[in-house]
Specification:
Layout: H1 6-10, E1 60-61, E2 64-65, H2 76-100, H3 108-130, H4 137-161, H5 166-186, H6 194-221, H7 231-261, H8 268-294
Antiparallel strand pairs: 1-2
Length: 298
């Protein structure tokens, strides 16, 4: 399964030549051995023992993958710590931007300009990391810091000019979605399989395409473009955006779970943290926009 998250799609937990089935059952302590059809990390056909499981290379002897040693392998603690570090830095820089970049009438233009530049640089860093062969903690942390500046100023503007307390409501909404999806995933209520993945990817591509078209009409035609981000349609698409974010979380949880089960290297935890952070930022932004639209100001 290739995640909707570009970090996981490009590299990381799905570096094989095309994620095969979802019915693979990992064995504790290392990658399962079987056929490529039933297990994307299984032993590859003769002559290429590494094609299916990129993590098995260091543990292969005489052409057969062995159970990897636990040293240097990614654990759930690694993922939690890296994610906490990345999100913590984002929250700190957001709080500093809120406090140090005022959005009153005299300073809003300057503060908004800094936020836009920070957001654009963060986006570039995100693409750089997504296409790198290895996780780069400095790039990931720089992304989180700059994304925090962008979100801090934007949240302050919405909180001061649209609805007081909007930022906290968006944070609570994001946390609620994260907990709900995690509980549903662990309880087995969400089954991440090929059908689920295909549906999410099709919906995501359609959503992004419509938003891009709406933005183009807004830029060149003025106003609200096609109206997909304002009024009743804006509310509908905001809800769809949150639901898509929830689906992305389920895909990310699946990727993390598989990476741990199949012995991903420890440094892959940074990619997990990066991907989860991107998804949570998506959900937060959708909540913030929803609140703005519901208050009659987009």
């Amino acid at each position: 399964m290739r995640s909707s998250n570009p970090v996981f799609s490009r590299r990381g937990f799905s570096r094989d030549n095309g994620y095969a089935q979802f019915n693979a059952q990992p064995q504790a302590g290392g990658p399962a051995v079987g056929t490529a059809e039933g297990n994307p990390y299984a032993q590859a056909p003769a002559g290429n023992p590494y094609a299916q499981n990129p993590y098995a290379q260091a543990d292969v002897q005489y052409g057969a993958p062995q159970a990897p040693a636990t040293t240097g392998r990614m654990t759930m603690d690694d993922v939690v710590m890296r994610t906490a570090t990345t999100l913590g830095l984002l929250v700190v820089t957001a709080a500093l931007a809120w406090a140090l970049l005022p959005v009153d009438e005299a300073n809003i233009g300057k503060s908004y300009g800094i936020a836009i530049v920070s957001g654009l640089i963060a986006m570039v860093l995100g693409f750089v990391q997504a296409f790198k062969r290895k996780a780069s903690p400095p790039i990931i942390l720089a992304y989180a810091a700059l994304e925090g500046v962008f979100l801090g100023v934007l949240s302050s503007i919405v909180d001061n000019y649209v609805k007081s307390g909007a930022a906290m409501q968006a944070v609570l909404g994001t946390m609620a979605v994260f907990v709900a999806v995690l509980v549903a995933y662990k309880a087995g209520w969400i089954r991440v399989n090929r059908r689920f993945y295909g549906f999410v990817m099709a919906a995501a591509m359609g959503f992004v395409l419509l938003m891009a078209v709406n933005l183009l009409f807004a830029v060149f035609g003025g106003g609200d473009g096609l109206g997909f981000r304002s009024g009743g349609l804006g509310i509908l698409f905001g809800i769809i955006g949150v639901l898509l974010g929830a689906c992305f979380l389920a895909l990310d949880f699946k990727q993390v779970e598989d990476g741990i089960a199949y012995g991903a290297p420890k440094e892959e935890a940074w990619l997990a943290a990066f991907g989860l952070t991107m998804t949570l930022v998506w959900i937060y932004m959708e909540f913030l926009r929803l609140i703005a639209i519901l208050q009659g100001n987009d």
